[in-house]
TrEMBL record:
Alphabetically ordered keywords of this record: Repeat, WD repeat
Protein name according to UniProt: WD40 repeat-like protein
Lineage: Eukaryota, Fungi, Dikarya, Ascomycota, Pezizomycotina
Any Pfam family: WD40
The WD repeat ranges on this chain: 1-31, 32-74, 75-116
Alphabetical list of InterPro entries matching this protein: WD40/YVTN_repeat-like_dom_sf, WD40_PAC1, WD40_repeat_CS, WD40_repeat_dom_sf, WD40_rpt
Domain of life, source organism: Eukaryota
PANTHER family (UniProt xref): F-BOX AND WD REPEAT DOMAIN CONTAINING 7, WD40 REPEAT PROTEIN
Length: 118
């Protein structure tokens, strides 16, 4: 759910897409396309303006504008499948957890990897 509880994001995994739904009506608001493999994790930013999605297949994750559906950034650099993503409360950082048991902290604006936790 978005933090304002108005939208829900879901992944179909095998169709490589993310869908954003109106939580009240159930209407599909956006279908986000761009991953080349299974999508297995999504997370809204605290202010619900951004959405991050992780692809376990290609080790990438994307940051989307949650209103327009535009892909703002594709982050790469994980050495393993990305299993989960989460925004920091202030939207400046993004964390990704990978199958190789590492957590990477990313700058959400530049896409630079700031730290790797092992």
């Amino acid at each position: 759910f978005s933090h304002d509880s108005t939208r829900l994001a879901s992944v179909g995994s095998q169709d490589h897409r993310v869908k954003i739904w109106d939580a009240s009506s159930g209407a599909c608001l956006q279908t986000l396309k761009g991953h080349s493999g299974y999508v297995n994790s999504v997370a809204f930013s605290h202010n619900s303006t951004r959405l991050a999605s992780a692809s376990s297949f290609d080790g990438t994750f994307k940051i989307w504008d949650a209103s327009s559906g535009a892909c703002l950034q594709t982050l790469e650099g994980s050495s393993s499948y990305v299993n989960s993503v989460a925004f920091s409360h202030d939207l400046t950082r993004l964390a990704s957890a990978s199958h190789d048991r590492t957590v990477k902290i990313w700058d959400a604006s530049s896409g630079a990897c700031l730290q790797t936790l092992e």
